Amino acid sequence: MNKDTIFASLTKNNKTAISIIRVSGPQTEIIIKKFFKKKPKNKEVNLRNIYTENGDFIDQGVILFFPEPNSPTGEDVLEFHVHGSLAIIKKIELELNNIEDVREAEPGEFTKRALQNDKVDLLQVEGLDDLLEASTETQRKCAQLAFMGSVSSKLLNWRDELIEISSFLETAIDFS
C-alpha cells in the first residue's frame, strides 16, 4: 500500500471556469477534516465551502468522495470541483502540500495506483493511453474498447478455452 497521498490539478496553470483537483491515498480522511466543516457524503455530489486549516474561506465547490475500494484508484479518492482561478488552485495545492505525507502526483501516478490496486489491467492502461492520444473517431472507438476492458475479457475467454482444450488433450494422452 502507498504511504503517501497524492494530488493533481486538472488545469494546473490555466485559468478556467472550473478546475478539478483529485486526491488519492490514506491521508484523504485527514484532508476532509482540514478542508470542510461537514464531511462530504460518499459517492454523492456535495456542495461545500472549502477552508484553510486556520478557518479562512478558500472557495465553494462541488466535492466528491469515493471511499476505498470503490474508487478509480482503489484508495480513498476526493475530488474538488472548484472555480478555476489560479489563486484558488494554488491555495488548495499549498494547503495540501502542508499536510504530512501529501504531495503532488507524478504524471500517470493515479493510473499506476489503479493498476497496482487491480482497478485496471495493463491492457486497459494501454487503452487509456491510446484514448488520450486518439485524434480520429475510429481511434477513439478502438481505444475506448480497450480501456473499458473488452480486449482483456476476450483474452481471458481465450485463456479459459485454451486451458480447457489442454486439459482434454492431457486426458486423451493419459487414457489412450
Tell me what you see in this structure:
It is a single chain. The chain is an alpha+beta fold. It is built from six helices and six strands, in the order ββαβββαβαααα. The protein has helices at residues 28-35, 86-97, 109-116, 122-133, 137-147, 150-174; strands at residues 5-9, 16-24, 46-51, 57-66, 77-84, 102-104. Strands 3-4-5-2-1-6 form a six-stranded mixed sheet. The longest helix is centred in the last third of the chain and has 25 residues, at 150-174. The chain is elongated.
Task: Provide the descriptors you would attach to this structure in a database record.
176 residues, alpha+beta, elongated
What strand order characterises the main sheet? 3-4-5-2-1-6
Task: Give the overall shape.
Answer: elongated
Q: Enumerate how many helices there are, as a single number.
A: 6
N-to-C CA distance: 50 Å
Rg from Cα: 21 Å
How big a fraction of the residues is strand?
15-25%
Characterize the biggest β-sheet.
Answer: 6 strands, mixed
Q: Portion of residues in helices?
A: 40-55%
Average predicted confidence as pLDDT: 90
Report the count of strand segments: 6
Class by SSE composition: alpha+beta
User: Which segments are poorly predicted (pLDDT under 50) over 5 or more consecutive residues?
Assistant: none
Strand and helix order: EEHEEEHEHHHH
